[in-house]
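Exercise: predict the fold of this chain.
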Amino acid sequence: MDKPQLPDIIPIFPLTGVLLLPGMWLPLHVFEPRYRALVADARDGARIIAMVQPVVARQDNSPPPEAPPDNPDVYPVGCLGRMERCDETADGRFVVALKGLSRFRAREELPLFNGYRRVVADYGEFAGDLHEPDAQLDSARLKQALQAFGERAKLPFDLAKLEAVPGVFLLNGLCMSLPFAPAEKQALLEAPTPLVRERILLGLMGMGLDREGARESHVPPTLN
């Protein structure tokens, strides 16, 4: 497969707790005006959207702000996606299907364009992402951990439906769908290889969900 063109300047779509990984699909329902503008521009252009997470403050029992900032700090590592489907509703909203291409590190944030944010992206440290769907992992270990995790968290999983899912797709699908804290999701995103991501995921599943937020050691730096 030819290497896709990865643009230097990319629009970012910040969503807390939402993860996109290479080779995986992410559905989006877009209704906020500035992100509708982002999707419309992407649809008419390179069909590229980058998913990033806003930085969530540590849980220190302080009261939340009255309103979140319009442009909060975001983590500098996100994942670039290509719009494989884009349907516009009668009232101007969009239903989008993104397919993950490659992670990136944002080196600089640019001025707003049509109300949405853009960054200068560097893909150098994530050169292996374009081949990640070919990675070989033992799915049996993941399914065993998932079964134990589901029993503790009282989350029903139909493991029979996962029998045919290859290891790396099972790994990345669980990383995207399991309800971990945003900083833990970011740690999964930033894992240098699928094997490291698997170790982090197994550790998180082993600890369950009854925890006090993200651990400080898992919180990467922010892009201001």
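Check your answer against the key: Strands lie at 9-14, 25-30, 48-52, 77-88, 94-113, 116-122.
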